[in-house]
Design a protein that fits this description.
Strand content: 5-15%
Mean pLDDT: 81
Shape: globular
Helix content: under 10%
Distance between the termini: 42 Å
Number of strands: 3
Largest sheet: 3 strands, antiparallel
Amino acid sequence: MRNMATLAGNVLQRTRCHYFRDRQCAACNKRETGSGCAVLECRNRRLAVLGTSERCIANYSGDFAIALVTLRAEVTVRGTDGSERTLPFENLHRPSGDAPHIETTLAPGDLITGCRPGRGPAARPT
């Protein structure tokens, strides 16, 4: 199955924690907006350290997206009206913030039509 996936499908994996599918853990803002995040008070080494908010502590599980951000890639998106736009790959995913159920900057019906690496790895902060 993994070998049949597209690169766009890979980078659009949902950000979720191990409790996302666990219905015994009722509060999950990704499953039901506004229900809370029951995991915030749990201790689990597999939860996110960066990019979290008081509404969600899930971590992004993809691997390809991290490489694309490092390479300063750009992604081309076609809207439902046929228009195309290009954006830095790092702007494709949104931080969880106040709306963890909204994971990307894509609008409903948008389609990723291309991706190209930038001019090499981003400069290291000094």
